[in-house]
């Protein structure tokens, strides 16, 4: 499944997207060229999360774009999403793999630590994510990752590499040149008045 991890990775964060606009916003992102969707919701409303994830999965299946669930392995299993994205405080890759199966996409946040990424790959991660690379409105306190880190990771890792954090179409090219396979975007995409056009501008960088 790791072959999917290339291009624009749209992170649909419900802190930014109103509930009534979520499905339409994601559909616009896909129509603009997003190759991967992540559902990111930090609320405790489990019924709402389930309904939203189910609707997103139906939309993603229609376009044959994988849906990744942020942090919630159980929800990923319930809606039969393509996989899960895990952070520092989430379950281990081994547990997620045992629960979701060998074809599931399991992504790991590695912040600015190559050692974390190398361990993740050894444990069967489908992709690793580094960042933030630029100041981020979503996570202003996030640690800074460097282009040198991306270059090292590109040389040493065998899995796709995702870059995240304050990425715009104007500042993204050095990240791709340094070895990023995919650009994960929240604000630069879903904070835009024309999501389809914004997605197209990111996707065009990969052509």
What does this protein structure show overall?
The structure is a single chain. This protein is of the alpha/beta class. It has one domain (2-206): Aldolase class I (TIM Barrel, Alpha-Beta Barrel), CATH 3.20.20.70. 39% of the residues lie in helices and 20% in strands. An eight-stranded parallel beta barrel has the order 1-2-3-4-5-6-7-8, surrounded by six helices. α1 runs parallel beside α2 (46-63) and α1 (22-32) packs parallel to α9. The relative contact order is 0.18.
Q: Looking across the biggest beta sheet, what order are the strands in?
A: 1-2-3-4-5-6-7-8
N-to-C order of helices and strands: EHEHEHEHEHEHEHEHH
Tell me what the CATH architecture is.
Alpha-Beta Barrel
Mean pLDDT: 95
> Helix content range of the residues, please?
25-40%
Major sheet attributes? 8 strands, parallel, barrel
Portion of residues in beta strands equals 15-25%
Global shape:
globular
The radius of gyration is: 16 Å
How many strands in all? 8
Query: SS-based structural class?
Result: alpha/beta
Counted up, domains total 1
Number of helices: 9
Contiguous low-pLDDT stretches (5 residues minimum) are none
CATH class equals Alpha Beta
- Determine the CATH topology: TIM Barrel
- What separation lies between the terminal Cα atoms? 21 Å
Please provide a brief summary of the model.
This protein has 207 residues and is of the alpha/beta class.
List the helices and strands and how they pair.
Elements: E1 7-13, H1 22-32, E2 34-40, H2 46-63, E3 67-70, H3 73-78, E4 83-86, H4 93-100, E5 105-111, H5 114-122, E6 127-130, H6 147-156, E7 161-164, H7 173-178, E8 182-185, H8 187-190, H9 195-203
């Amino acid at each position: 499944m790791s072959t999917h991890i290339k291009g624009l990775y749209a992170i649909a964060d419900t802190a930014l997207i109103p509930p009534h606009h979520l499905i339409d916003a994601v559909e616009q992102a896909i129509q603009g060229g997003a190759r991967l969707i992540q559902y990111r919701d930090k609320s405790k409303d489990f019924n709402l999360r389930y309904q939203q994830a189910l609707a997103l999965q139906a939309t993603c299946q229609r376009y044959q774009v994988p849906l990744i669930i942020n942090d919630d392995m159980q929800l990923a299993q319930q809606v039969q999403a393509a996989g899960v994205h895990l952070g520092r405080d989430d379950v281990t890759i081994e547990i997620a793999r045992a629960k979701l199966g060998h074809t599931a996409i399991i992504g790991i946040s590695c912040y600015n630590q190559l050692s974390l990424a190398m361990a993740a790959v050894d444990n069967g991660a489908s992709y690793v994510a580094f960042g933030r690379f630029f100041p981020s409105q979503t996570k202003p306190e996030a640690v800074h990752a460097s282009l040198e880190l991306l270059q090292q990771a590109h040389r040493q890792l065998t899995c796709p590499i995702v870059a995240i954090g304050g990425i715009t179409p104007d500042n993204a090219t050095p990240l791709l040149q340094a070895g990023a396979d995919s650009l994960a975007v929240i604000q630069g995409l879903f904070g835009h008045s024309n999501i389809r056009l914004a997605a197209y501008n990111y996707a065009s960088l990969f052509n």
